[in-house]
Amino acid sequence: MVNKDVTKVCIGKIEELPEQLGKTVYIEDKELAVFKLSDGSIRAIENRCPHKGGVLAEGIVSGQYVFCPMHDWKISLEDGIVQEPDHGCVKTYETLIEGEHVYLVY
Amino acid sequence: MGKKQLVLVGNGMAGVRAIEEILSIAKDEFQITIFGAEPHPNYNRILLSKVLQGDTDIKDITLNDWDWYEENNIQLYTNETVIKVDTENKTVITDADRIQPYDELILATGSVPFILPIPGADKKGVTAFRDIKDTDTMLAASKQYKKAAVIGGGLLGLEAARGLLNLGMDVSVIHLAPFLMERQLDATAGRLLQNELEKQGMTFLLEKQTEEIVGDDRVEGLRFKDGTSIEADLVVMAVGIRPNTTLGAESGIPVNRGIIVNDYMQTEIPHIYAVGECAEHRGIAYGLVAPLYEQAKVLAKHMCGIETKPYEGSVLSTQLKVSGVEVFSAGDFNESEEKKAIKVFDEQDGIYKKIVLRGNQIVGAVLFGDSSEGNRLFSMIQKEADISETSKISILQPLSQEAGTSITAAMSDDEIICGCNGVSKGAIIQAIQEKGCSSTDEIKACTGASRSCGGCKPLVEEILQHTLGSDFDASAQKEAICGCTTLSRDEVVEEIKAKGLSHTREVMNVLGWKTPEGCSKCRPALNYYLGMINPTKYEDDRTSRFVNERMHANIQKDGTYSVVPRMYGGVTNSTDLRKIADVVDKYEIPLVKMTGGQRIDLIGVKKEDLPKVWEDLDMPSGYAYGKTLRTVKTCVGEQFCRFGTQDSMALGIALEKKFEGLNTPHKVKMAVSACPRNCAESGIKDLGVVGIDGGWELYVGGNGGTHLRAGDLLMKVKTNEEVLEYAGTYLQYYRETANYLERTSAWLERVGLSHVQSVLNDPEKRQELNGRMNETLSVHKDPWKDFLEDKQTSKELFENVVTTS
User: Fold this and answer.
1) By C-alpha distance, which of B403, B92, B506 is closest to B269?
2) Could you tell me the end-to-end alpha-carbon distance of chain B, in angstroms, rounded to an integer?
3) Where does chain B hold its CATH 3.30.413.10 domain(s)?
4) Cross-chain residue pair A69–B547, CB shorter than 8 Å
5) B629-778 adopts what CATH topology?
6) Where is [2Fe-2S] cluster bound in this sequence (chain A)?
7) Chain A residues with beta carbon closer than 8 angstroms to that of B516
8) Contact assessment for residue B693 and residue B660, using Cβ atoms and an 8 Å cutoff
9) Closest among B215, B210, B257 to B237, alpha carbons compared
10) B170-175 and B147-151 as β-strands: parallel, antiparallel, unpaired?
11) CATH among 3.90.45.10, 3.40.50.620, 3.10.20.310, 3.90.480.10 for B549-617
12) Cβ-based contacts of A61 with chain B (< 8 Å)
């Protein structure tokens, strides 16, 4: 369904997303890392670490944070901000759960 | 045969300790016979409360198993009670009509639990808490019934109550006195304890006297003297113990409350001794274990004709963790006309400390909530220390490390450090100096010290520090594993074992992690420790694996992966090379490179292609990415080489096949060279083997990376089988004692080569370690094959989502 200002794209069934692990999702020209956290909520961020472009989808997840597998930068899945002592941020995306499915909203 | 007949009546802790002491003095002097009324070998009765809690198995509390009796030529009769001693003819008679002559006799009949002489005490569901049978009764009842009543709010009753709570029962504790544990605590500490235990879920009925146990065949409730009553499906009587003097009395041996003994544990009848709870010494029959171990020592020396100081009675100290609450009491702890107290009471933190003085001498102490000062105060009480020089309040403050003198430095080697297990200072020093123990954990494993209540651990550490001096690195033992916790690696591993924890999330939860889901440091570490401790049952937590180990491939900087198939010993053939070549072409893999480990690396494979690449290769994973065995490099060796004295390729391949996939604290690299020219570079490997004429040399702790280190010569062996066996023992010891992410080089520097050698030279330890290693190896499966069989996991990990909007 498309309306004027907001696009909603289906990523898949929520039960198909592995828990506390990332999934690489390609939408148009974007590459996202989508995480299903242990509390069942969904987070999506761009799949590139601001340090050297590492793939965040493969990182270890703890609570609301993911650790980049390349050099262990710690990134918030809430607001995309890289935690001290490092600096930077990643783009975050909004997601929506409807019934059995997860949607990306942008 | 010439040996004297020694008969022990009673197979419990005190009696058997006396036998152990006798054996250590005069192994072959006596022909020993033991009679035990219970059907079990010698076990630690005190740990029954842990069995009740579900924490521990019966076999874990066994002090001496059936083998011990055989190994020491002791004739053991279980399930047999001695009913009479014929002091004239020097024989004992049992209920199986057996007549056993003796030259020397020891009575160690222990205590009988006191059962209230009230109507209903013989109903089903009413039990004491003395032996394994009682414990089984309580465990069985907890599965069927809900309400438990414990009569007796002393030490034993509270331990029983804690156990029953753990089993899911509703527990009420009935006590005659106005506060709990009045034998060990004063009113203030007793009430603090009650508050704590009520928070844990226990209900208390104080100043209540039970008049009748009501019910039909089975108990249904209790009725009290004041007319009130409660319901109960299980009643545990923990109202006290009485020395078991029946045998003594029936045989004409003088008894009072207990069997009367002198300062050398002799009864009034020649050649008959008594020890333990059944004995009465200077009017006291002891119910705690530390004095009984002291008695056993004196008895043994006296019986063997060795000069010994007489037993003069014990100053009692109790250090307990009742239900997780720290409680300590020692000496004479109640105030009176001549005895005055100094108290510190912190209501906010729930800490209460009191010392009792007679004039300027410290005679007693009670600590609640923080009992870390217990050992120091007890030492002062035993020495009848004069405190006139010390400022009053500072007695109760912990002394700083430099300012205070160490407690243990002033102790003689004979003095007992661990009261629960009767371990002396000398025994601990021996363990350090002769057996190479260099941590409290190792001393615990070697001597048993600090393995029960744990209260003596600070003293054990002190002795370690003094004995090892600058070699003792306290900080290595205490470093927290990451910022999420204050616990060190040893502490975490201990807790996992003690509490039977089985998932990373459970560990972080139960041990109070600051962050509930940990961090990139501790999650993989916990996953490793859990799997190391329980290899067959633990289910690996893939979310706690670093990406390489989760994907079973090496991630590259651009998000592609490298694939390294197994090439045992660096040996290949045309079939495998053709398979590899075909796969490279089919998947257009950009880079093919030889690795340092003597195999082929296919670099630049896309994530979603990995399962198909593995399927087409049809070779096992080379684990080039893991905290595991990497490779066993080899030189050509005697199969072709002019110089090789041994077949290095065959041994290398055997080693790699045996240990592939083993989870280790960090990567392990091995090599086998066929002669000292060392073409396989065995000198810089975690475990390197070098062939010599007639055998192999094993080198350990080498490292060819950032911290270059030459390996140390561990040992020389003759056969391939020995190499495999000792490699297994060595690696298992590394797995069990190293910190996660500690290479063998760092670990070996820390624990010391001679210590490792002493472990490997101990046949018993070798057997145990190899047993655990083989158990671990038995569950290994090739991960690439696994993925091919588990389509769902493959999809979750390797497939990307590509949407169409």
Assistant:
1) B92
2) 96
3) 629-778
4) yes
5) Sulfite Reductase Hemoprotein; domain 1 (3.30.413)
6) 49, 51, 68, 71
7) 63
8) no
9) B210
10) parallel
11) 3.90.480.10
12) 517, 543
Query: Is-cis flag, bond preceding A85, omega within 30?
Result: yes
Q: What is the CA radius of gyration of chain A?
A: 13
The reply to whether A87 falls in a domain is yes
Enter the pTM of the model.
0.52
Nearest-CA distance B612 → chain A (Å): 19
Domain(s) labelled CATH 3.30.390.30 in chain B stretch across: 317-390
C-alpha radius of gyration, chain B, whole number: 32
Q: What residue type is assigned to position B396 of the chain?
A: L
Q: Which residues pair with A43 in a beta bridge?
A: A35
Please determine, for residue B724, whether its predicted confidence score (pLDDT) is greater than 90: yes
Residue B331 touches chain A, beta carbons under 8 Å = no
Chain B: give the shortest CA distance to residue A61, in Å: 7
**Where in chain B is CATH 3.90.480.10?**
549-617
Distance CA B423, CA B311 (A): 17
Length of chain A in terms of residues written: 106
Please indicate if any CB of chain A lies within 8 Å of the CB of B503. Answer: no
Q: Which residues of B touch A54 (CB under 8 A)?
A: 557, 559
Evaluate whether the domain defined by B317-390 bears CATH number 3.30.390.30.
yes
For chain A, counts of helices (H) and of strands (E): 0, 9
CATH of the domain at A40: 2.102.10.10
Which of residues A45 and B474 earns the better pLDDT score? A45
Q: A73: nearest CA in chain B?
A: B520
Note whether residue A90 is domain-resident.
yes
Question: How far, in Å, CA of B637 to CA of B643, rounded?
Answer: 7
Min distance B514 CA to chain A CA atoms (Å) = 12
- The 10s digit of each residue's pLDDT in B297-329 is 999 999 999 998 899 988 777 777 666 678 888
Q: Residue A79 carries which side chain, given as an amino acid letter?
A: D
A10 assigned binding-site residue: no
Asked if residue A70 belongs to a domain, the reply is yes
Would you call A72 and B551 a contact, using CB atoms and an 8 Å cutoff?
A: no
In this prediction the ipTM stands at 0.92
Question: Hey, are the CB atoms on B801 and A25 less than 8 Å from each other?
Answer: yes
Which homologous superfamily does the CATH classification assign to the domain defined by B4-111+243-303? FAD/NAD(P)-binding domain (3.50.50.60)
In a domain, A77, yes or no: yes
How far does the CA of residue B481 sit from the closest CA of chain A (Å)?
16
Q: How confident is the model at residue B706, as a pLDDT?
A: 76
Q: Which domain covers residue A47, as residue numbers? A: 8-105
| Count of CB pairs separated by less than 8 Å, A with B | 80
Q: b/e map of B79-91 (b: 16 or more CB within 10 Å)?
A: ebbbeebebeebb
Asked if B414 and B425 touch (Cβ cutoff 8 Å), the reply is yes
* pLDDT digits 0-9 by tens, B207-228: 999 999 999 999 999 999 999 9
Nearest neighbour of A23 by CB, restricted to B524, B555, B801? B801
For CATH 3.50.50.60, the residue range(s) in chain B are 4-111+243-303, 126-239
**Mean pLDDT computed over B357-376:** 85
> Under CATH, what is the fold of the domain B416-472?
Arc Repressor Mutant, subunit A (1.10.10)
Number of domains present in the structure of chain A: 1
Q: Considering only the top CATH level, what class is B126-239?
A: alpha beta
Length of chain B: 805
User: CA of B602: how far to CAs of B27, B76, B515, B585, in Å?
Assistant: 65, 66, 39, 11
Q: What percent of chain B has pLDDT over 70?
A: 95
